[in-house]
Write a structure and sequence with these properties.
Neuraminidase; about 230 residues; mainly beta; 21 strands
Length: about 230
């Protein structure tokens, strides 16, 4: 069994025979939840405190104790490591999900450290725990609103696109499946991060649970990028 020691800035494991091994996390403050990852490693979150500035970080550790910092210095309140409860799980989409009391949302973090957010529909929900249900969807306990919310779509697949600088690209950049088959394209909004620092709105099309996201963009330089 693996655990974090918040006040000691260590990750530890204990065998069924009671043997404890600890691994220090240098530069960390306030270690948070730990969970098993889709890659066979243990993943955990922690805060770095410098004066009045807080930043969230995500790290992984192998079962032999090799530590890797995957994402560091993400602003608290707009990413992970902010005011959240105990929710930190690996979703069925192969990414990690954690609750954020502020802003009122969930954060999704890939194993490569890409962070995105999903706003909760209940105002001031106070998300406190997360679980992957038997339907493979993400379920969220909302303490303040007294409700349980389900994310019917918790991930998709970006397409690799090729574009020439100065020439307008237009086409599909991603696809996803929603668990609610009666959902329509008008139920969704999409944003496209083009890989060069630019972000635009995307157009959603589809029905019966299967959807695509399309967009139009002109690159200043030629790139080959997988959109998200």
């Amino acid at each position: 069994m693996w655990f974090t020691e918040s006040s000691a800035d260590k990750v530890g494991k204990i065998t069924t025979a009671g043997v404890i091994t600890e691994y220090p996390v240098k530069g960390a403050n306030l270690l948070g939840s730990i969970t098993s990852g889709p890659d066979g490693n243990l993943w955990f979150e922690f805060l770095v405190i410098k004066g009045t500035t807080l930043s969230g970080s995500l790290a992984k550790i192998t079962t032999s104790g090799v530590l890797t910092i995957v994402k560091q210095g993400y602003p608290v309140g707009t990413g992970f490591g902010g005011k959240h409860g105990n929710g930190f799980v690996a979703g069925s989409d192969g990414a990690f999900w954690l609750d954020q009391g502020y802003p009122n949302s969930l954060a999704r973090v890939t194993t490569s450290g890409v962070v995105s957010e999903v706003a909760l529909s209940s105002a001031n929900a106070c998300p406190s725990d997360l679980a992957v249900g038997a339907d493979k969807k993400l379920w969220v306990v909302e303490a303040c609103s007294g409700t349980v919310e389900r994310l019917s779509a918790i991930g998709g697949a970006g397409k690799t696109i090729a574009a020439t600088h100065g020439v307008s690209f237009s086409g599909a950049v991603a696809s996803y499946t929603d668990g609610t088959t009666t959902a329509t394209a008008s139920d969704f909004t999409a944003s496209i991060v083009w890989g060069d620092g630019s972000k635009t709105s995307g157009a959603v099309a589809g029905s019966s649970g299967s959807f695509t996201v399309s967009g139009t963009y002109t690159y200043a330089n030629a790139v080959t990028s997988k959109s998200r």
